[in-house]
Amino acid sequence: MERRAFRLNGFLVLLVLLVLAAIAAVVSLEDLALVWVVVFVLVASGFTVVNPNEAKVVQFFGRYIGTVQDAGFVWVLPFSYKSKITLRVRNFETAKLKVNDADGNPVEIAAVVVYKVTDAAKAKFSVDDYENYIAIQSEAAVRHLATTHPYDSHDAGRTSLRDGAEVATELTAELRERTELAGIEVLEARITHLAYAPEIAQAMLVRQQAGQVVAARTRIVEGAVGMVHLALDRLAAEGVVELDEERKAQMVSNLLVVLCGDRAIQPVVNTGSLYA
User: Fold this and answer.
1) Beta strands 8-9 and 72-75: pairing type?
2) What is the pLDDT of residues 97-142, one digit of tens each?
3) What's the CA gap between 100 and 151, in Å, rounded?
4) Is residue 57 within a helix (H) or strand (E), and if so which, with residue range?
């Protein structure tokens, strides 16, 4: 949609105007002076200044005639309307949204979006206000992301909102699709705030702590079983002592209590016999 507008160097056009003014002053003809004033007003309406990383969308009586992106002092079609569109990289943070995740738990979520305008004509004419458009679309994309993923996933193949890289890639791709028609390119979108809603935060904290305790106990038991197996194998291989099945069971029980217990163990010296 975007195309380059006809333009000339503004200083060159200004120089021509000054030359005409000098001629009018030398000739001193009333009719020529009046013509010069009309020409000056006509030509001066086409001057505009374009800053770096900025574009001017040029309209002539409502018709789009092109875009100027060359920084400097330029001259375009007289009596044209020139709209400024910034091409700088910009960013904003969405408000903290309260939504239900894929498991139905209320969470608070917010994201930061980095974007820039790549097509000034689309940004001007495709939507009413491209800044407001991307803000609303970003909130919609964040809500959709939160409802399709759980806050915390206990399944290995399921992506959760806490998986930063995967979630950021998905959010960026969705926003690019939503904002392409407005001439906007989303460079990056990342979650900046993620938490359970206050009404369930304490309960979910207890749940997470319980999950961590279970995971830790599982690792402890796995390690203890391995150590018991190693101890029995070493005792048998080096011939330190011969144990029947009942004594092995007793030894395994004692070792597991020592290795898996979360309190200090009081040693007991057994001077008797299991069969006494």
Assistant:
1) antiparallel
2) 999 888 888 889 999 999 999 999 999 999 999 999 999 999 999 9
3) 9
4) strand 54-60
